[in-house]
Amino acid sequence: MINQFRKLSPINLLLLLAYTFFMRMAIFYEMPPQLNFDFLEPFARLLINIDLDNAFSPGANIFFATILVFVQALIFNKVVNNHNLLSKPSFLPGLMFITGTSLFMPFMTLSPALIANFFLIWIIDKFLKLGKSANSITTVFDIGMIIALGTLIYFPFMAMILMIFLALLLFRPFSWREWLAGLIGFMTVFFFLAVFYYWNDNLTSFYQIWKPLGNKFPSVFKINYNDYLVLIPVVIIIILASLQLRENFFRSFISTRKGFQLLFFMFVVAGASLYLKPSFRIWHFLLCVPPGAVLLAYYFSNAKKRWFYETLFFLFVLSVQYFLFV
């Protein structure tokens, strides 16, 4: 299967679509009786009053989530290939993205984090263009606005502001204008939101938006470790990919090395941003899938022994399906 997706063959589009539904067999087989979908953060509903909480039946919810994941996988695949992060263009990034979004049942339903992944993939593309741009002020300003729009949908997405500064450190010589441009882009969206609150004589509620920023990072997590055994194959592949990346690191293009460093920091920031949400939901970690999927794809793109990497991927998929059904 891996060998098939190493090629940029049009038939892989159909195979990828079939694989997307295959990885969601468990949730289609045992459909939840009710699924809610909070499309926007409460503070953004005054601006855009769309109530989708009960707009979809459970079947429709899962179906549309599957289609969105497939579309995201195609966009993500194109971004990774366009920036030459792997040894050669392939459908492996899309394949790993779909596999990553199938690890847990909550990943397979409509959620704010799933929608926010569109914005995350967009800013990954923008970040990777920073090193190739002569004047990046406009790009950084756009990134700030994209992060603000993502924050309207899912508040922890705000943590991606940190990635602006990390990306500038990696890709650009220091320029205070560029550092300021990202913040201005972010604040522009919230400035208009504040004006809207003011027009509706509700400015005090606007200040409540920022209360989660004062949350303390949780020191205690209630974890059922059996629910996360499915991550063991992921950890194994990440370790193998890291060893392979280290071996090839200084033989890679500088832009590729910086790209992987950027994605590593993005993975960490996306995971740590859960502290911005008072109630923990496992679908939050959908934000970790795009940067993590690149590393998984890197291993399968560069692995040499076919019998080993095909068997490893088969066992990976088998373990995902096993834990989903069990």
From TrEMBL:
Transmembrane segments: 12-29, 62-80, 92-123, 143-171, 178-199, 228-247, 259-276, 282-300, 307-325
Top-level taxon of the source organism: Bacteria
GO molecular-function terms, A-Z: monooxygenase activity
Keywords tagged on the record: Membrane, Monooxygenase, Oxidoreductase, Transmembrane, Transmembrane helix
Protein name from the UniProt record: Beta-carotene 15,15'-monooxygenase
Gene source species: Pedobacter endophyticus
Organism classification: Bacteria, Pseudomonadati, Bacteroidota, Sphingobacteriia, Sphingobacteriales
